Task: structure prediction
Amino acid sequence: MKDDTQELTLFDNYDFIEKIESLMADCESAEVEFKSARGGFPGSLWETYSAFANTQGGVIVLGVKEKDGKFTLDGITLEQARKYKKEFWDNVNNKAHCSANVLQEKDVQDGEYNGSYVLVFNVPRAPRNKIPVYLHNNPENTFKRNYEGDYRCDASEIQRMFADADITEHPRDYKILPEFTIEQDIDKATLEQYRRLVATKSPDHPWLLLDDKHFLMKLKGYRIDRREKIEGLTLAGLLMFGKTDSITDAYGCPQYFPDYREYFSSNPDDRWTDRICPDGTWEANLFQFYYRVYPKLAASLPKPFALKDGIREDETPTHTALREAFINALVHCDYSVDSNITIELHKDCYIFSNPGSLLLSIAQYYQGGNSVCRNKALQTMFMLIGSAEKAGSGADKIMQGWKKANYRNPRIEEITHPDKVVLTLPLVSLLSDEVISYLKSLFGEEITSIEHNKLMTLATCCSEGEITNYRMQLVLDKHSADITKLLKELCNDRYLIPEGIGRGTHYRINKKFREGGLPGNVASNVASNVASNVASSPDKERRRRLSSSELHTAILQACVDFESLETIANKIGKSLRYLKNRAIPIMVAEGLLEREYPNMPKHPHQRYRAKKR
Result:
């Protein structure tokens, strides 16, 4: 790290200005926060640092004040920026001030913007063994981030974070429940059904010869702790094979209530069309819940005809992905959270929601190959009957299965207060036979062999008429910079035509591809137009900032009928995050907009319409 006598490292100022402009376009959200430093280094920065490190990371911009979407520069000088940077590094490496430093030098950037110096802190999610990140040597000063900003964690949240940090050595479901017994609390019919499934898959498995107690011990459903001199059923054994009343009586399952719902009605006011939940007619342990619900989920997937070794194979990679998503919700669940598992089947998607937080970053989840299981015994139990993949491959199977079916990419998100992980598997295919046929007619047979994300981009553009960077971020779950690179390559290959300049650029299919060029003088402008979408100079084509009343008027004009957030963002040229986190909630609260699903504000397909007066 540099000392205070050295010059600040000024990154390419062109790129730095674009970064600041991009962050301002997003405005404050769950991932971005602006801090004024006019009166000195702001103490509130540390609460945001803790909150970002304990959730999914984020960006702190120091030296810019934001209010109602308007930005004011603090006028920080080079000397002040140097001082603030040194103060930050001194404190973040001081254990008495902050429990963990999760930043490297490259994560703190600085530069000049419109005559004022600005510091940008790129705070990553902390490694699992460093969470919680807290302040002033006191775990009570632990913060998390949600859409409303930073909040102080309560004692139960902090306790769960410490437990997750030690999850490798002490899985949650290994916990012994000495007051519960096999005779009184295990549902014998469930255990017998499970044994039969093991015998079907592995007829010669040696565990099948054991009595119930020793069979459960092999599964870690029953444990003996010689050091503590206790033995009994474990949390895993009770959850998997237990009686409903016994599970809900157990300490550590305050809100156990596995819930499956189908939403097939076209009427948004209908609550559900089918439901499976603990209703007293069955023992609602995890095994019974899984075997009642999975067939209903699988029935919604097509079963294309395929032969393997001369035998029809009904199970596809998409079925494997679906099963893995379901099992993940059960084995990664934090049953100590005051919430419950919900599995939803909609016409156009599956939604798996389980209490708890991710044990790795969302980026690591999408990359695959990494897995930390909160309930290792439950995972073993499902693996033994062939219903779960080995550790580390679950997310890979989900992504590959959905990609194989040409569905839109799965989307995972982490919600706080209470902690919850939500995985959405869209059932919308962008590569229908009609779309592929049309693309082949334009670009030739070889178009289907291009990189998958590029093919999905062309298919989306074909289906919707035009696309934007915003739109493709939603479809592909990629960062805007990655989307920009992909769009630029498609334009350079003449598959797409850019229209407009900067962030307002739209892209259309090049219908004159076979004529060997682009219509008009577009070809000569492709590179410059796309490049301007990446780094438009603040002195050129700067987007005019709207007042609150102007913004509200534009949104109302875009919402004559029910429209999605991405459609509204595309129509008015504003950030999707800003609309989601600021403008839209305010307009709903003021009665200017109405939701299509008023009783489900976080419905995955929520749309908005101007309220009739």
